[in-house]
């Protein structure tokens, strides 16, 4: 009696893409991946280019001679009508997951054999489903339902089942009991996918099929090739020595909702999002986990996808703030077409047990804070919200905005006495030397300045008694924001010490600030 | 009066952004009578500044900024020759005493070498300013006192700079106070990194490259403004109005710094002469001795004597006798140490060099032009290049020169690596923060740009790359890419140029360690050395010299004898092989293009071979010289001359100019140029061509011809011939030297094939063909080749005498892939002790690892110990029992024996070659049924016949000069078939043609002057059999 079934989806990377875009199934398709090419990089050049190579190709592309590890140019030369897609890890992961789930729907004992490969323990299924052929058909049916096209082999061992799946001409191949060795004998040894070293050794030995490998003396092989050789020999005999490692589904972090109609309004979409999020949050809560990021993936009526990553300001498992953030994000970045499918996946993390520090300032509830920040961001723009930090630039007063994050408990290093939290705060020694502080005007005030040569002699109506400068700086000559300015420190008639600046691009003068 | 005493060029690598020449030109424009170039840790740019300054009419001051152990930098200026020598010694000591990039000196290390040097205290990174900026006023004071003690109060200046920085001004005030209190004079400088303010962007780009960042992230590491340019006296006066003495001191100091590189003190080493001899007298004696040996009482002796006398007279006048003696000495060293040596290049024009044995081409018999080698007007040292066997023997000669002239008496010349083309585009693009895909696109494009008008780049080429020419970054890219071209990037080592000096070379130029152990490099390149009168000898490695030398040794070892100097000059068998293009492995004439021309040129004497070497080159092809020459040679076209006066010059090449010497003579005869002017013309159109110079010379050429009454089409024809050819033209002397090696290699190949092929295989990789092709060629020529055998093979291929038969070649263990040389030599040593009892005995005694043993088994190298390949493979896979245990018991192998195809695959996989049947033999029967001809059969077909040929692709070429045509060489068991693929056929079958190792070609036979080729109509791939031979593709 057959004990195992092997479900095999060939060219799995391509199949994973076809699963997401079924329209590609009948057309030649190659999945591409970037590879660093350092062939043209000579000594000293210090450079290597990135070239795209085929990672996998579907059957239609293979008919035209497209094979893995070809450059994109070569693949296109072989098959001018070739369609290409980049390799996306998520596609493969979800297809692999889906394949295992489909197999799990037939038997409670399955094993993950790698991408595109699942072993199914069929013992006892005959009473539920029928003969091995029927079990195979059921498996094919289940896998096709999730958008993959499998071949199924059934045999007394996993290896025999896998070889039957790989070499059989029909969708389901059943190896009759006792026929395993005969079936395996003709299979090329390459089907075992042994390591390159072992493969090379068998190649040198002239061992081309599993039958030839099986015919070698077991002890002789073991003495020469050790455990790996012995394992290969046993596989060639159709013996499984590796223990069956049942696969159990991981916690489910993705929720999806297919729609029967197209949604083109954000209000309606929000209702669907809420439903999906509720399911997701229930699952998170059930295992006491929270999410720190959401990925919203909207299937579009146009056939494409619209994906948004929504960072959560703090890890949570509450629907409302998640929904608010998701909706605000989609308001700012609406999908380009009507939505037909909603998928939300959450990145789960474990929450840190504990409470806020005693010296931490009181803060609004995280959910309120997040909502307020999201609203402010939508109102003033994400670039204008956050905390200003100085930029390393010769441009005086240059700064940028850092995204706001709730204040953290100061670390132990920061709490030591005498530590200066800000690098740019002048040190005590400089202050002691009598350096002046500049009270800066923001924005700097435009002023009228009269000059003698370059030197300012009068600001607006006020006489300049003395001046030092110019202190000249310029930068960003490589971009549209090129700037150049001269600064002067001047003493006005009333004794005021201030800083004037002349924009060398526009010729305008500004009062930058006063010295205290 | 202000003189800039602290300029830094791009030889302050990744800091300065200007050529030294630009500083000279700008100083002249600003009426600055002198300028000091003070690059970091070297005088790399000093020679170039000296040349440019002489042209601009200003005084170049030599100096260098020395990196101190605390990271600060101390500028030192040279006052006199002693100071220069001290500076060179300091830099040499610093560079040779530390790993590359980590060189620095402690202040105390300066002590013995401060005489004749003036010290400035440097800019922001100087030892004073850096201490003051850090608030260490006491440290600054102590450092100043230390410097004053080292250099003396009159030779130490506190340097002040003003670049409009607020913080710098505070330091300056304290520097002034410090100088005043220590009674040390001030000196102002601007420490320019570029000549004009517009140079600032490039300096910022260099900062980004140095700091491995881009402009958006470099922050305050970039320059604050564009003030680091060369400033005029007026501008500096305005800046330093409050401390005028700092300016005045620069003028006075510049007057004091009188040293220039004219006063370098370089002396060529004196040759140890016999007592009572003068260099010229001794050279004359040697030449006369050589003359007798070379010419005897032959018909050329009288002419040769006259020529040598003429040359010696000039050599004496130019005081070059010592130089010839030293080169002769190196050549003699090679001879006595059995190292083959031959002078090449223009030295082959000299009868003295020929008589001394430096060169091997008879310039008298060949009527070569001596002035191309040496002329009074050139004012340069002659250039003698010596070809040596590459590898260890060449290194031995280099080490001999070091030994003879002292470790600090000789050095390799530098090779200044500059920013060019693609890599420059990538680095500029990276500094500008362009995305990597755009950088890649730009890098691919710029390879074809050449030097162009920036506007043209922007309007034409950048949009082609998909870049927006209106984007400021893209506009900057174009300008910066152009500006960075040819700026020095780093210093490399010239392949073979050595300079030597009497006494210490590090008194003349600083020395640096080379990457190769045991070598030092001088800080100047060969042009700088030549410009300063430093003598250079090129010791170049040539693979064919190794082959020739090894062949001679093997011939000698097998009881034969060949003297390269005494080869019969017109050996019919050699010329027959050349005429039949049977030249695989022959120096210079083995390429596919040479083979396609040889049967058409049909060389019959040595000069034909000289022409053959020179003709398949871009110059003659671009200048459309090849076909006229062949037509004339075949008698299909009358021999004519553009002008009757050119007949004596062009007669030997049938009226077609082929050599540089002809070009010089043509200009001299038709335009009345002097030898010097003709040489200038050659240079103007040579590799370092400049549009302006070319236009000037061309005008002069036309004017000269007009004066001689040459106008119209004739003049145009001559101008075209000269200008098209000057760039690539091959010197006749050079071609002659190469032709000599070509003849020698062809001679050995024909008459001593076992020695020649063994040597050729022992010196791989070299030449045009893969060893597999060389092996098959040898076998086709009847050479018996024996396979690798652990009981017979040496590490290298050897000759085994076979009774009553011609010598046989044994493949060496070096061809076993993955076999370590040490293990290979251990096999040889172990079997000499006693024969191997079993393969485990072999493994144990030769310390072979399992992979090595298995490879030896797979290629059949263990057959002599017993067993077949597969039985040995089965046995070799058994783990080694170790020295204390007996061999594992023998057991029958369950493996089936190798088929022919498997043996072939195992041979290629394990050795890259096969001595068995050619892969095409295995499919010949099937091919014959399809009517496919072998390469030999192809020779008999009619012109225009439809044919099928097949073979392993050994050459694929698509020369730039061939308008898209692709040439293939298909090898089968009978020889090589040539296939021509026209562009449409190539486009149709591109992938098959480019990637398939075995091809079946359907085409039309074309016969031209005995050369058969197939014009492809259709191409199909043949399924590969196991391994295949790598082809020489598009090289």
Question: In brief, what are we looking at here?
Answer:
The complex is a heterodimer of chains A (516) and B (1035). With 516 residues, chain A is α+β, with helices and mostly antiparallel strands.
Describe the protein in words.
The complex is a heterodimer of chains A (516) and B (1035). Chain A is α+β, with helices and mostly antiparallel strands and 516 residues long. Helices cover 31% and strands 30% of the residues of chain A. Chain A has helices at 12-20, 59-63, 72-78, 89-104, 125-128, 132-145, 158-167, 180-185, 196-205, 210-215, 218-236, 266-286, 319-332, 366-380, 428-432, and strands spanning 4-8, 29-37, 49-57, 83-86, 110-114, 117-121, 151-155, 172-174, 254-263, 289-300, 305-316, 339-350, 387-390, 399-402, 438-447, 449-452, 455-459, 462-475, 483-492, 497-503, 509-515. In chain A, strands 15-21-20-19-18-17-16 form a seven-stranded antiparallel β-sheet, with no helix packed on it. Chain A has a five-stranded mixed β-sheet with strand order 5-6-1-7-8. A four-stranded antiparallel β-sheet of chain A has the order 9-12-10-11, covered by helices on one side. In chain A, helix 4 (89-104) packs antiparallel against helix 6. Chain A starts with a strand and ends with a strand. By secondary structure, chain B is α/β, with parallel strands linked by helices. Helices cover 45% and strands 14% of the residues of chain B. The longest helix of chain B has 20 residues, at 732-751. Chains A and B meet through helix 3, helix 9, helix 11, strand 18 and strand 19 of A and helix 7, helix 16, helix 17, helix 19 and helix 38 of B.
């Amino acid at each position: 009696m057959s004990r195992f079934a092997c479900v095999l989806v060939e060219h799995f990377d391509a199949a994973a893409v076809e699963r997401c875009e079924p329209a590609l199934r009948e057309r030649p398709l190659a999945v591409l991946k970037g590879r660093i090419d350092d062939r043209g990089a000579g000594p000293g050049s210090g450079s290597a280019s990135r070239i795209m190579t085929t990672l996998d190709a579907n059957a239609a592309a293979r008919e035209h001679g497209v094979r893995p590890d070809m450059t994109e140019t070569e693949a296109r030369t072989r098959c001018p009508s070739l369609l290409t897609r980049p390799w996306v890890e998520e596609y493969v992961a979800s297809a692999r997951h889906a394949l295992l789930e489909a197999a799990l729907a037939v038997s409670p004992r399955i094993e993950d054999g790698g991408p595109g490969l699942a072993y199914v323990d069929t013992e006892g299924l005959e009473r539920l489903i029928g003969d091995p052929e029927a079990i195979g058909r059921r498996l094919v049916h289940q896998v096709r339902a999730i958008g993959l096209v499998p071949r199924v082999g059934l045999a007394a061992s996993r290896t025999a089942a896998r070889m039957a799946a790989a070499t059989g001409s029909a969708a389901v191949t059943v190896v009759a009991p006792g026929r395993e060795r005969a079936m395996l004998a003709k299979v090329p040894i390459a089907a075992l996918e042994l390591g390159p070293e072992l493969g090379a050794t068998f190649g040198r030995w002239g061992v081309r099929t599993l039958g030839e490998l099986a015919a070698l003396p077991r002890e002789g092989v073991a003495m020469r090739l050790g455990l790996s050789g012995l394992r290969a020999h046993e596989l060639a005999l159709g013996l499984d020595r590796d223990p069956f490692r049942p696969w159990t589904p991981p916690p489910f972090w993705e929720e999806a909702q297919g729609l029967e109609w197209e949604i083109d309004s954000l209000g309606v979409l929000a209702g669907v999002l809420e439903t999906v999020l509720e399911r997701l949050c229930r699952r998170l809560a059930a295992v006491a986990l929270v999410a720190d990021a959401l990925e919203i993936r909207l299937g579009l009526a146009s056939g494409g996808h619209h994906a948004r990553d929504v960072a959560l300001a703090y890890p949570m498992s509450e629907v409302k703030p998640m929904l608010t953030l998701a909706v605000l994000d989609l308001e700012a970045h609406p999908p380009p077409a009507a939505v037909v499918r909603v998928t939300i996946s959450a990145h789960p993390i474990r929450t840190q047990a504990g409470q806020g520090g005693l010296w931490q300032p009181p803060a609004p509830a995280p959910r309120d804070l997040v909502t307020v920040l999201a609203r402010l961001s939508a109102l003033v723009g994400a670039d204008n919200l956050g905390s200003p930090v100085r930029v390393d630039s010769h441009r005086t007063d240059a700064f940028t905005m850092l995204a706001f994050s709730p204040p953290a408990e100061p670390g132990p290093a920061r709490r030591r006495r005498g530590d200066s939290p800000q690098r740019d705060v002048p040190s005590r020694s400089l202050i002691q030397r009598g350096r002046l502080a500049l009270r800066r005007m923001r924005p700097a005030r435009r002023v009228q300045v009269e000059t003698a040569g370059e030197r300012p002699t009068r600001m607006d109506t006020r006489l300049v008694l003395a001046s030092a400068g110019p202190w000249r700086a310029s930068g960003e000559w490589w971009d549209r924001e090129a700037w150049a300015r001269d600064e002067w420190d001047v003493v006005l008639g009333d004794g005021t010490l201030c800083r004037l600046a002349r924009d060398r691009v526009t010729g305008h003068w500004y009062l930058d600030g006063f010295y205290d | 009066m202000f003189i800039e005493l602290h300029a830094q060029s791009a030889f302050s690598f990744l800091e300065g952004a200007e050529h030294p020449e630009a500083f000279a030109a700008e100083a002249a424009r600003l009426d600055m009578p002198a300028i000091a170039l003070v690059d970091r840790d070297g005088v790399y740019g000093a020679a170039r500044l000296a040349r440019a300054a002489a042209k601009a009419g200003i005084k170049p001051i030599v100096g260098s900024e020395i990196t101190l152990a605390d990271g600060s930098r101390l500028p030192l200026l040279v006052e006199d020759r002693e100071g220069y020598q001290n500076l060179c010694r300091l830099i040499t000591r610093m560079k040779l005493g530390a790993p590359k990039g980590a060189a620095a000196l402690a202040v105390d290390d300066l002590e013995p070498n401060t005489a004749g040097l003036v010290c400035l205290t440097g800019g922001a990174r100087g030892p004073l300013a850096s201490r003051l900026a850090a608030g260490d006023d006491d440290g600054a004071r102590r450092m100043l006192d230390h410097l004053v003690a080292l250099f003396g109060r009159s030779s130490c200046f506190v340097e002040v700079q003003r670049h409009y920085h607020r913080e710098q001004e505070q330091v300056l005030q304290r520097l002034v106070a410090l100088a005043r209190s220590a009674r040390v004079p001030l000196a102002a400088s601007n420490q320019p990194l570029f000549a004009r303010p517009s140079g600032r962007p490039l300096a910022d780009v260099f900062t980004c490259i140095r700091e491995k960042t881009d402009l958006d992230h470099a922050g305050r590491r970039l320059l604050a403004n564009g003030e680091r340019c060369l400033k005029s006296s007026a501008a500096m006066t305005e800046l330093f109005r409050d401390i005028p003495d700092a300016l005045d001191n620069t003028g006075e100091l510049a007057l004091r710094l009188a040293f220039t590189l004219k006063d370098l003190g370089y002396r060529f080493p004196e040759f140890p002469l016999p007592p009572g001899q003068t260099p010229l007298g001794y050279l004359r004696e040697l030449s006369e001795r050589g003359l007798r040996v070379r010419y005897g009482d032959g018909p050329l002796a009288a002419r040769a004597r006259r020529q040598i006398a003429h040359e010696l007279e000039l050599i004496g006048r130019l005081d070059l006798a010592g130089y010839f003696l030293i080169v002769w000495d190196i050549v003699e060293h090679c001879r006595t140490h059995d190292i083959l040596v031959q002078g090449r290049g223009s030295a082959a024009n000299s009868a003295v060099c020929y008589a001394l044995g430096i060169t091997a081409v008879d310039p008298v018999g060949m009527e070569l032009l001596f002035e191309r080698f040496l002329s009074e007007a050139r004012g340069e040292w002659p250039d003698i290049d010596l070809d040596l066997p590459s590898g260890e023997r060449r290194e031995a000669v280099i080490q001999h020169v070091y030994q003879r002239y002292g470790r600090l008496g000789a050095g390799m010349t530098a090779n200044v690596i500059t920013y060019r083309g693609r890599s420059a585009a990538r680095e500029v693009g990276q500094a500008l923060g362009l995305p990597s895909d755009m950088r890649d696109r730009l890098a691919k494009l710029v390879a074809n740009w050449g030097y162009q008008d920036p506007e043209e780049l922007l309007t034409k080429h950048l949009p082609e790359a998909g870049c927006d020419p209106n984007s400021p970054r893209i506009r900057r890219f174009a300008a910066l890419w152009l500006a960075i071209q040819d700026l020095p990037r780093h210093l490399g080592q010239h392949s073979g140029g050595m300079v030597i000096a009497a006494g210490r070379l590090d008194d003349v130029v600083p020395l640096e360690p080379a990457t190769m152990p045991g070598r030092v490099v001088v800080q100047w390149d060969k042009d700088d050395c030549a410009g300063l009168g430093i003598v250079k000898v090129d010791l170049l490695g040539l693979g064919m010299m190794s082959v020739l030398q090894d062949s001679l040794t093997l011939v000698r070892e097998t009881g034969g004898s060949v003297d390269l100097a005494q080869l019969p000059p017109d050996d019919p068998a050699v010329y027959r092989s050349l005429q039949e293009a049977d030249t695989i492995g022959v120096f210079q004439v083995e390429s596919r293009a040479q083979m396609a021309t040889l049967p058409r040129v049909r060389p019959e004497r040595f000069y034909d071979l000289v022409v053959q070497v020179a003709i398949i080159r871009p110059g003659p092809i671009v200048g459309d010289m090849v076909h006229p020459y062949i037509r004339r040679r075949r008698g299909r076209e009358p021999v004519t001359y553009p002008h009757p006066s050119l007949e004596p010059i062009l007669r030997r090449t049938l009226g077609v100019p082929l050599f540089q010497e002809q070009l010089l003579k043509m200009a001299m005869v038709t335009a009345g140029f002097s030898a010097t002017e003709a040489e200038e013309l050659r240079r103007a159109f040579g590799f370092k061509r400049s549009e302006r110079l070319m236009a000037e010379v061309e005008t002069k050429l036309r004017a000269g011809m007009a004066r001689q009454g040459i106008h119209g089409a004739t003049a145009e024809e001559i101008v075209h011939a000269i200008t098209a050819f000057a760039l690539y033209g091959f010197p006749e002397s050079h071609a002659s030297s190469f032709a000599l090696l070509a003849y020698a290699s062809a001679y050995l190949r024909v008459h001593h094939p076992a020695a020649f092929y063994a040597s050729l295989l022992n010196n791989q990789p070299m030449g045009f063909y893969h060893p597999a092709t060389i092996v098959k060629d040898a076998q086709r020529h009847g050479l018996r080749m024996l396979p690798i055998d652990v009981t017979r093979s040496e590490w290298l291929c050897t000759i085994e005498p076979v009774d009553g038969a011609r010598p046989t070649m044994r493949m060496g263990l070096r061809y076993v892939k993955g076999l370590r040389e040490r293990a290979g030599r251990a096999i040889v040593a172990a079997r000499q002790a006693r024969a191997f009892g079993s393969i485990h005995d072999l493994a144990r005694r030769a310390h072979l690892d399992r992979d090595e043993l298995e490879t030896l088994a797979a290629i059949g190298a263990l057959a002599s110990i017993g067993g077949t390949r597969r039985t040995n493979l089965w046995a070799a896979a058994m783990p080694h029992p170790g020295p204390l245990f007996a061999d594992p018991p023998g057991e029958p192998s369950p493996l089936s024996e190798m088929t022919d195809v498997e043996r072939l695959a195992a041979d290629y996989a394990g050795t890259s070659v096969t001595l068995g049947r050619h892969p095409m033999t295995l499919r010949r029967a099937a091919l014959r049924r399809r009517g496919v001809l072998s390469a030999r059969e192809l020779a008999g077909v009619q012109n225009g016949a439809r044919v099928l040929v097949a073979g392993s692709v050994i050459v694929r070429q698509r020369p730039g000069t061939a308008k898209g045509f692709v040439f293939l060489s298909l090898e089968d068991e009978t020889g090589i078939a040539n296939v021509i693929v026209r562009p449409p056929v190539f486009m149709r079958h591109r992938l098959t043609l480019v990637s398939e190792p075995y091809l079946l070609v359907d085409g039309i036979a074309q016969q031209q002057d005995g050369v058969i080729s197939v014009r492809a109509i259709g191409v199909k791939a043949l399924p590969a059999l196991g391994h295949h031979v790598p082809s020489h593709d598009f090289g």
